[in-house]
Amino acid sequence: MIAIKNTWEEKSALYKQKSKVITRQGIVFINSFEVALRLGEDVKNIQWKAKYGRFRDIAKRWGKLYWFQEKDINRLMGV
Asked: Partner of 78 at 20 to 30 A CA spacing, among 1, 6, 32, 56?
């Protein structure tokens, strides 16, 4: 397993090494965190916007639909 880094830049580089994580709800694309990085979001905002649809709308504009659940985000962040 690859060690989780501390900064967003390092985490983005880490996520680029993986393609996707399959969940029961669908597919969580790791590079969605790159989109969040560019938008200046943190994990809690990603979770909130995914839950209420706003982040999904942003993600669609980038060409992909992302599915998030709190447990998935926590696992990806190494919590």
From this structure: 56
Q: How large is the average pLDDT for residues 4-26?
A: 47
Side chain identity at residue 21, one-letter code:
V
Q: Round to the nearest angstrom and report the end-to-end CA distance of the chain.
A: 14
- DSSP-assigned letters across all residues of 5-50: PSSHHHHHHHHHT--EEEETTEEEETTHHHHHHHHT--HHHHHHHH
For residue 46, the tally of other CB atoms under 10 A from its CB is: 22
CA gap 17, 25 in Å, rounded: 22
- Distance of alpha carbon 35 from alpha carbon 60, whole angstroms: 11
In residues, how long is the chain?
A: 79
